[in-house]
What does this fold into?
Amino acid sequence: MNLPPADKFDEMHAPDGSVRPAYHEYCRWLDQQDTAQLRKKGAEAESVFRRTGITFNVYGEDDAEERLIPFDMVPRIITAAEWRRVSRGIEQRVRALNAFIHDLYHRQEIIRSGRLPLRVLRDNAVWLPQMVGFTPPGGVYTHIVGIDLVRTGPNDFMVLEDNARTPSGVSYMLENRETMMAMFPELFTRAKVRPISDYPRNLAASLAACAPEFSGSRPTIAVLTPGIYNSAYFEHAFLADQMGAELVEGSDLRVVDGRVQMRTTDGFRPIDVLYRRVDDEYLDPLTFNPSSVLGVPGIFDVYRAGRITIANAPGTGVADDKAIYSFMPEIVQFYTGEQPILPNVQTWRCAEKESLAYVLANLSELVVKEVHGSGGYGMLIGPTSSKKELEAFRAKLVAKPENYIAQPTLALSTCPIFTAKGLAPRHVDLRPFVLCSPNGVEITPGGLTRVALKKGSLVVNSSQGGGTKDSWVLDD
It folds into this structure.
């Protein structure tokens, strides 16, 4: 295997080439395998993914056909001790996020205290004045959260992004595990890997716990999808099926007798919890975008009346803003009284004069992101950009500095992938999935590992050519 440069943390191998403890059992198994058979297994996995429909669409491209997200069969492995620290940090952060969102829509104590400047909220396009003074059923805003982590050393996990709106990818996490167990069942008898198959059941229970009080012991749950042409439609259908919930589109729903109800063969039936995968703007044409055909006219009034739970709550997108992200250390400390267990990546806010001057002077060394950007779009990776690209981005920064933040180019950790020439290191990140309800915070062990399949690339997003891996958390 080709080891990465010494400044990149290799999660499988130590600098002297020895195998790290997390991978001992896996590497013993791997040494006994026939390479040709492994390559055949990889082709079989791709065939299974295509037959199952595990694909995604890329918007805005002329050839936006369905694509497979490439799956790599070398697992990413995390020890029990490493996971304990990571999960404590995630729980702390998610609790702080929920308290922060509640505060922003109520007394705004963090702004009154001077810890968060008013401009960050004022300039936030996804802050919803319609949510002011309203508390969702159960007091939960962030029912499902994805926290993107990167690693730069043995104990150096950092938060790269918070996804509090509609985090995607959990279906790929589950399908990756099922595929690995089908291809290599013997591996799971040798390595004590914590299971993740109970996620759909836990999701259903967590959503049910957030239902309005009058809903009874068996609330009705539905998943709202924009439809079959949405890039994540497979995931919407998968989760509805796995939870035993209804999969609905806006046209299937209407407000009847003060409740949101879905059309069935027996007439309309009330819904208690709606796990929506439709953005705030399109949720209710009477309250938000009047041209939307994806949402339900009048649903927001029903929501404000406490007659339905919407997960995640409208307005949670404020926490996804990368300018807000830069204040997360202060936010965690303000709402928990503790120092953050998981640090942020160092971030320069280009809206601040001194930070902008630094970023402009060091543009070729930094990663610059739009504060509302996602999916790897609208960003600059300085070290891999041409002079022309750097100058074009410089002009954007000067014109609208408040639209951007900048971060150092991190030496992301690597995990091996299986290539035609054998194992080769590639950069990875990790998105653990978190469920929040009045009963507490539950973190699925592991999450979705995204991998940059191109040698030297730091961009792991599937829309930008990245793939995924099964993520293992070992038991003690």
Q: What stands out?
A: The chain has two domains: 21-212+308-343+410-473, 348-408. The chain is about 30% helix and 25% strand. Residues 21-212+308-343+410-473 form one domain.
